[in-house]
């Protein structure tokens, strides 16, 4: 019998959807021009890039000229943070961020710290929420940039970015948000959030790896961090990744069309998975905020279990999940996000993230709910960490 395959790691990456793959293929095989060339091949590539810019802008309520294409979320985060820091260093050298950011943000901030900038790393509460009042209190006359993610990639908590955006606007401080996990998963509007810079990645929204975008509000003072030709209005040198860009554009248009149907469906699948796990497995807790949560994110901790061991067993059963973020798995340190949320080590080590995708079905969830309790029980029976007792205690939430 064929093993059932259930991919629940869409926060790490998504499959390229077939409409997008077809488009990408056409722009590799036929419409292969350099968008800077003056001939027919080049003009067609240029038109396609500009159409894609409009599609990305439309999804987030921006104007086309406010979108810069990059190689992905990591580059967009680096351009936003280092670019704003460099262009505004005469105004001040203070940046505010949080302890639960993606490493693309945290390590860019640490780099600037070594170069003489001051960085404030705000704490989060037990659900992973940043307190907007903490942002307000941390702002000084030296502050030039606040960078707080829109939703956390590990625990799915959605941050109060609209409130933070208002506070930044009041204080005349630039606000950047890493929205990689949100754009394509939930409706986003840059005017509602009052954000100045926003990071998007293609491969988290059914487009290829190696393409992304940075929204930059008109009038924002920002410097380039990649020098060369005058591509992307001089902000990002390098021949445009035309196939990736057109693929990302189409993925944005399709997401915009499908979100009204997809979001409620994913939320209900997510809730069925969460409720099923909490009801059938003892000594388990949900990580992240119960309601302010990405529609596709489930993150749970099993006490007395090593998350990595659970992942391997799930993989043998055909289920692809992750522990913490893909970037940190492989190391046995617990996730910086869970530790910042105050999760004790014994819980943080046993965390598993399952992230649903647009093609996840009811049957997929049924299968996980059948396999997971069995795998957890087996691991606990084998584990020296499990206290000896006849019955498991009641659920701890
Ligand atoms: C995946 C991810 C990134 C990095 O994006 P890449 O396109 O893989 O470089 C940045 N931030 C968040 C929140 C992510 O989930």
Verbal overview:
- This protein is of the alpha/beta class and 397 residues long.
- Helices cover 40% and strands 13% of the residues.
- The chain has helices at 18-29, 40-60, 73-87, 103-114, 132-138, 161-170, 190-193, 242-280, 307-316, 336-340, 345-348, 362-382; strands spanning 6-7, 67-70, 94-98, 118-122, 143-147, 174-178, 197-201, 212-216, 284-286, 297-302, 319-320, 351-355.
- The strands form three sheets. It has a seven-stranded mixed sheet, with helices on both faces.
- α3 runs parallel beside α4 (103-114) and α8 packs across α12.
- The protein binds pyridoxal-5'-phosphate.
- Pyridoxal-5'-phosphate (PLP) binds next to α3.
- Pyridoxal-5'-phosphate binds at residues 72-74, 77, 102, 104, 149, 153, 178, 180-181, 201, 203-204, 212.
What is the fold's blueprint, element by element?
Layout: E1 6-7, H1 18-29, H2 40-60, E2 67-70, H3 73-87, E3 94-98, H4 103-114, E4 118-122, H5 132-138, E5 143-147, H6 161-170, E6 174-178, H7 190-193, E7 197-201, E8 212-216, H8 242-280, E9 284-286, E10 297-302, H9 307-316, E11 319-320, H10 336-340, H11 345-348, E12 351-355, H12 362-382
Parallel strand pairs: 1-11, 3-4, 3-5, 5-6, 6-7
Antiparallel strand pairs: 2-8, 7-8, 9-10, 10-12
Bound molecules: pyridoxal-5'-phosphate.
Strands of the widest sheet, in order across it, are: 2-8-7-6-5-3-4
CATH topology of the domain at 6-13 and 259-382: Aspartate Aminotransferase, domain 1
The tally of helices reads 12
**What share of residues are in beta strands?**
5-15%
Assign the CATH superfamily of the domain at 6-13 and 259-382: Aspartate Aminotransferase, domain 1
Oligomeric composition of the shown chains: single chain
Largest sheet: 7 strands, mixed
How much is the radius of gyration in Å? 22 Å
* Ligand kinds: pyridoxal-5'-phosphate
Shape: globular
Give me the CATH architecture of the domain at 6-13 and 259-382, please: Alpha-Beta Complex
């Amino acid at each position: 019998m064929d093993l059932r395959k259930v991919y629940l790691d869409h926060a790490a990456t998504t499959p390229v959807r077939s409409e997008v793959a077809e488009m990408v293929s056409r722009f590799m095989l036929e419409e292969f021009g350099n968008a800077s060339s003056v001939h027919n091949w080049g003009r067609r590539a240029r038109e396609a890039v500009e159409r894609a810019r409009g599609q990305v802008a439309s999804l987030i309520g921006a104007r086309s000229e406010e979108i810069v294409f990059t190689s992905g979320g990591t580059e967009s985060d680096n351009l936003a943070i280092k670019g704003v820091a460099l262009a505004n260093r005469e105004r001040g050298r203070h940046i505010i961020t949080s302890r639960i950011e993606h490493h693309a943000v945290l390590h860019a901030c640490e780099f600037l710290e070594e170069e003489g900038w001051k960085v404030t790393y705000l704490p989060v509460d037990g659900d992973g929420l940043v307190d907007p009042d903490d942002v307000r209190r941390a702002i000084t006359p030296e502050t030039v940039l606040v960078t707080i993610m829109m939703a956390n990639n590990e625990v799915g908590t959605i941050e109060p970015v609209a409130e933070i955006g208002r506070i930044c606007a009041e204080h005349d401080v630039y606000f950047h948000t890493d929205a990689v996990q949100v754009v394509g998963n939930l409706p986003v509007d840059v005017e509602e959030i009052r954000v100045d810079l926003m990071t998007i990645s293609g491969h988290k929204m059914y487009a290829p790896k190696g393409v992304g975008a940075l929204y930059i509000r008109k009038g924002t003072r920002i410097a380039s961090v990649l020098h060369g030709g005058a591509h992307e209005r001089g902000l990002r040198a390098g021949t445009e990744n035309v196939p990736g860009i057109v693929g990302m554009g189409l993925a944005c248009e399709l997401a915009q069309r499908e979100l009204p149907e997809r979001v409620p469906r994913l939320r209900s699948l997510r809730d069925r998975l969460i409720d099923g796990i909490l009801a059938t497995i003892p000594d388990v807790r949900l990580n992240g905020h119960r309601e302010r949560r990405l529609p596709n994110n489930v993150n749970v901790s099993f006490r007395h279990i090593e998350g990595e061991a659970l992942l391997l067993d799930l993989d043998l059963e055909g289920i692809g999940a992750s522990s913490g973020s893909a970037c940190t798995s492989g190391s046995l340190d617990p996730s910086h996000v869970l530790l910042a949320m105050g999760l004790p080590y014994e819980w943080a080590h046993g965390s598993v993230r399952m992230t649903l995708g647009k093609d996840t079905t009811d049957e997929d969830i049924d299968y996980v709910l059948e396999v997971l309790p069995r795998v957890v029980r087996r691991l606990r029976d084998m584990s020296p960490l499990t206290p000896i007792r006849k019955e498991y205690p009641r659920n701890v939430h």
